[in-house]
Write a structure and sequence with these properties.
about 450 residues; alpha+beta; Uridine Diphospho-n-acetylenolpyruvylglucosamine Reductase, domain 2; Uridine Diphospho-n-acetylenolpyruvylglucosamine Reductase, domain 3; Alpha-Beta Plaits; 4 domains; seven-stranded antiparallel β-sheet; five-stranded antiparallel β-sheet; 18 strands; about 35% helix; globular
Amino acid sequence: MLDSRIIQKLTEIVDEDNVAAEPQDLLCYSYDATQMQFKPDVVVYPADAEEVSLILKMANSERIPVFPRGAGSGFSGGSLPKGGGILLVVTRMNRILRIDTDNLIAEVEPGVVTEQFQEAVEKLGLFYPPDPASLKFSTLGGNVAECAGGPRAVKYGVTKDFVMGLEVVLPTGDIIRTGGETVKGVVGYDLTKLMCGSEGTLGVITKIIFKLLPLPEAKKTMMAVFDSIDGAAKAVSTIISGKIIPTTLEFMDHATLQCVDRRFSLGMPAEGRAVLIIEVDGDRDLIEKQAGQIHGLIKPLGLVQFRVAKDAAESEQLWKVRRLVSPSLRDVNPTKYNEDIVVPRSRVPDVIRRIEKIQQKYDIPIVNFGHAGDGNIHVNVMIDKEIEGQEEKAHEAIKEIFQAALDLGGTMSGEHGIGLSKAPYIPLELSPVQIAAMKAIKHALDPNNILNPGKMFPE
């Protein structure tokens, strides 16, 4: 509990309307997309880097924890104020400052909603590819802090691949600028990349310079249903080895199909055991040709059904299958642990088979879908916490799932980050020397450990 002196100092920095300490306000900011909940002592809404700087200088002097937050849509507890303190919400900083059509860059504040930014640049014939599932409400600052991905990553990469420069307030309150507006620049360490994916532990992002691309002329969406997971996985590598890099290659396993079809009656083929949603973009004539090539490449791989959208409305219908997955999962069990392992794309069937054995061992439902084009599988462990022992089973199963991904040359998190939920497992992937090096960086920038403490590293 913070004393009134601290609340008064915050009010002097951001004014009374931008400080919230009522119980209902604290409750609203006590959760994210995980099952965890921790209440802050106070919520503040700064308007710019200068106000963020003053808040952090005061907090650093008083040794008060500060937790940066955007939309709070994360899946790892990265913005949750465990232990209490100041929750610093950047949603007031929500301006698109400029879009430079000559140099194909944009400068934005961290509170801009991802989809709104995409729409703004597309009106000018430009393109910002990163597309996390939360794009309708997640903010760009959070996307950078988590290094968000999305379905289009297979062709275009993830958020860090489009960040050229940042304005960042360090935990001490110092304001720095990293990177810039040029494609090349090798003066000093690459602090821009260091901040991408740092989960708000090294600094508060207050401005972002993004690289943009020309907007593709057209896109073509396809759905392929296979009689086995192996066929679907083989299709992914076959398409890419055929010199076609699709925009997206989304995967759903049989359990996922059952969930969606049971609830929404989409008429999926009964013999279907896996689905790929495939999308290509670019020159209109080229993508028509690529759609035909893709069909020819994957036809021998146990293809049960192949549908090609003729227009935007049909494309939306095909994507509907994927978008209805999350609403369907609660029919399996009320509590979901959503993990996001990554393996080399050729090892997707191997990891799915390992997960099936883990499911049988612990006798709890596990549903798999995700971005097969880059080997990023969302593994959903579904339990009912009211049934004794299921929560313990889930945590043991998750540990084995992470180990399976690591055994196959992968990683335990592709885009959700570590935060609180994965911190206990981080020694599975990182050596003590690696962890020590990262902690040394944290200590150098945040000597009093006031910025998002307790995240990423096991306590």
